[in-house]
Amino acid sequence: MLNTATDSAPAGASGYPLALQQLTDSALPTGAFAHSLGFETYIERGLVHDEASFGVWLGAFISQQLTYSDGLAIRFLYEGWDVGELDAMLSAQLLPRQVREASIKLGNRLLEIGSEAFPSPALERYRDLVTTGRAAGHQPLGFAVVVRSLGVPLAEALAAYLFAAVTSLTQNAVRAIPLGQNAGQRLLRKAADGVAAAAGRIGHLGPDDFGAVSPGLEISQMRHERQRARMFMS
Predict the structure, then answer these.
(1) DSSP state of 106
(2) Which domains does the chain have, with CATH numbers?
(3) Fewest Cβ atoms closer than 10 Å to its Cβ: which of 157, 158, 166, 221?
(4) pTM value?
(5) What's the sign of the alpha-carbon dihedral 115, 158, 33, 99?
(6) Cβ distance 111 to 123 under 8 Å?
(7) Which residues contact 11 (CB under 8 A, 6 or more apart)?
(8) Is the pLDDT of residue 11 over 90?
């Protein structure tokens, strides 16, 4: 059994806070700017068209996919679940092809960055699983392996990951809808409450909750790959 929760490495003289800021900065070159994770389908259908309507979609995404998929995967890894098993479970429950591929693309890039900037035995083992074809390399697991090795507490890791995802999606919505920069900041402030609620909820979920995402969200994500015109890869 591969248990990544037993390995930790120092984050340098600055400790983990600055490392965590680096890993969640919107400028981190993972390619997140190229993914809408489904909201572009809602734009095409006219359901998301302004600040308020995007805020509704974002709230649903936080309380669904970020909670029951990404966030719960991070918690399970911190609790000592086998990273290869979690990787296979994520691949199975991310039903929309584009969203599954986005998680893998962003995850592999994060693993590459992490190996250069924050190497650790746990990260090296996960990368070995990926490079040998025994794992796909999903974004939340790559993040969790890196920050767990840096000594970041679970509560901080969850809040940071969820809010980084929200920030990326909001920046993409500012370009795509389009919205003003001030609207984006208002959305982030409101979304912070949803992130805090999601982080708290994740601590009370069990294995049977893993992947329990709204079918409507998944169907819209599936429709994206057949959309006539697109700005985003997912």
Answers:
(1) H
(2) 39-226 (1.10.4190.10)
(3) 166
(4) 0.92
(5) positive
(6) yes
(7) 18, 19, 118, 150, 151
(8) no
